[in-house]
Write a structure and sequence with these properties.
The protein folds into two domains: 279 residues, Vaccinia Virus protein VP39 (Rossmann fold, 3-Layer(aba) Sandwich); 71 residues, 2-Layer Sandwich (Phenylalanyl-tRNA Synthetase, Chain B, domain 1). Helices cover 40% and strands 23% of the residues. The protein contains 15 helices and 15 strands. The strands form four sheets. Strands 5-4-3-6-7-9-8 form a seven-stranded mixed sheet, with helices on both faces. Helix 2 links the parallel strand 3 and strand 4. The longest helix is centred in the middle third of the chain and has 19 residues. It starts with 5 loop residues before the first strand and ends with a helix. Bound molecules: S-adenosylmethionine. The site of S-adenosylmethionine (SAM) has 19 residues, from helix 2.
Length: 365
């Protein structure tokens, strides 16, 4: 080995290229996905996962860290790419976890066909997770956790609605709510595949970034539980006037309308991983709503100045509502306040452009 490049991430030291660095020897490693991996480690700790599979393992970074930091005793790290397999071997040896990492180089679906039932399965593909869902869901055990990434955000978020219908069996929404709707479409698709095998898959944590969606679902078995899940799949209506998503028959979805976060896990993740996103998600998990209000859009439509977000949140809370920012967009507020109450609150803060100061004084209670 003439030239190597090492990366530090968490407690692990990782090599992702060998010999003379050229693209054919590169193994996929994206440092920007550190937070994504940090979260999977906290999930593994929370559910006391002892054995899992990283079916698209790349450099093996996630498997190595799950063992080093997540308390996992045995990880199956599989990747179809020969260089990835070599990297996983080097990385598990370097991090002294080679006895706990079982490496294979197979198509992921074949790997899953041959493996026993597992407590944790991670699907982290380039693009859509679709081709791996069926075989992964078959092998996820009772109380197991299925972790799924989707990087094909364009169809899910409504840039290509026909593709979304074809691949995810639902109509997306192309507006400020697109990422939440995308995650809810993805969750429903995974749940429908689970339903075939009488596996009820309930989301416990979800997050969205610019280029991917990530969801964690807990598996339980039984017809009744599956029926409970399916009852929460609904077509929704987007009310353009109020910019709200409602669970009345409409043209959006069908989507999963249940919770996308477990409150306790979200709190625990926020305590361990002190990032803006995890902190906001912990707050969002306390408010079960479909979507949020985009304050910038509402203010621009109603010709108001944009008030400070913290003031809006404080005012809504003062009025007895729950309210927080949303990690889906920096311009949104998630609240259980109805639209009219939200508008009253905005009126308190935002100076309508053509009002006089004295009129505003009367307005202020
Ligand atoms: C996005 S990368 C995985 C990244 C890795 N999980 C991480 O955290 O760094 C996707 C990986 O899937 C592998 N892959 C693609 N198609 C596959 C298939 N059908 N079976 C197994 N591995 C596959 C690629 O070689 C690539 O390493």
């Amino acid at each position: 080995m003439k030239e190597t490049k090492w990366h530090n991430e968490g407690k692990a030291k990782i090599i992702a290229s060998f010999g003379k660095i050229n693209s054919s020897m590169q193994v996929f490693y994206n440092p920007a996905m550190k937070l994504n991996r940090d979260i999977s480690i906290e999930i593994a700790k929370h559910y006391k996962i002892k054995e899992g599979a990283d079916i698209l393992a790349g450099s093996g970074i996630r498997s190595v860290r799950l063992v080093l930091e997540g308390g996992v005793e045995k990880m199956y790290a599989n990747d179809i790419n020969e260089n990835a397999s070599r990297a996983i071997k080097i990385n598990s040896t370097k991090n002294k976890v080679s006895k706990k990492i079982i490496i294979s180089q197979k198509p992921a679906t074949k790997f899953l066909e041959e493996i026993k039932t597992l407590e944790y399965i991670d699907i982290d593909p380039f693009g859509s997770p679709n081709q791996f869902l069926d075989s992964a869901i078959k092998k996820i055990g009772r109380r197991g956790i299925l972790a799924v990434t989707a990087t094909d955000t364009a169809p899910l978020a409504g840039t290509y609605p026909k593709t979304c219908k074809r691949k995810y069996w639902a109509a997306p929404l192309r507006n400020h709510l697109k990422h939440e709707v995308a995650i809810r479409i993805l969750i429903r698709k995974i749940q429908l595949i689970g339903a075939q095998y009488e596996k009820a898959l309930t989301p416990v944590y979800s997050h969205s970034t610019m280029h991917y969606y990530r969801v964690y679902l807990k598996c339980e078995k039984g017809k009744t539980k599956v029926d409970e899940i399916i009852k929460q799949h609904e077509l929704c209506n987007y009310d353009k006037e109020k910019e709200e998503l409602k669970t009345s028959q409409g043209e959006v979805g069908p989507i999963w309308t249940g919770k996308i976060w477990d409150e306790e896990i979200s709190k625990s993740i926020a305590e361990k991983i002190r990032e803006n996103m995890t902190r906001i998600i912990s707050e969002e998990s306390k408010i079960h709503t479909l979507g949020y209000y985009d304050i910038h859009e509402i203010c621009s439509k109603t010709k108001r100045q944009i008030p400070p977000f913290e003031s809006i949140i404080q005012q809504l809370v003062k009025q007895g509502y729950k309210a927080t920012r949303t990690h889906f967009t920096p311009t949104g507020i998630r609240t259980n306040a109805p639209y009219e109450e939200m508008m009253k609150c905005l009126s308190l803060f935002s100076l309508e452009r053509n009002r006089t100061q004295s009129e505003l004084e009367q307005f202020r209670i």
